[in-house]
Please model this.
Amino acid sequence: MAHSGGPTLIARVLRATPGEIMTLQLMRLQISSYQRDQRIAKAELDALDAQPEPGAAMNLFADRVLRG
Model:
């Protein structure tokens, strides 16, 4: 059979023990948990960055009072 220039598929026999399967499932759950925790931490950090710095309102008020 001539090669068509497309990807070549190679059949392989994969073997895994029940313990290996359970380990993979556990690893996937751990990774999902870590990713969720990272998304939450990033959202919390972004929320903190969006807040004005302490004293910003007082500085703005003082600037207006001293100018006016």
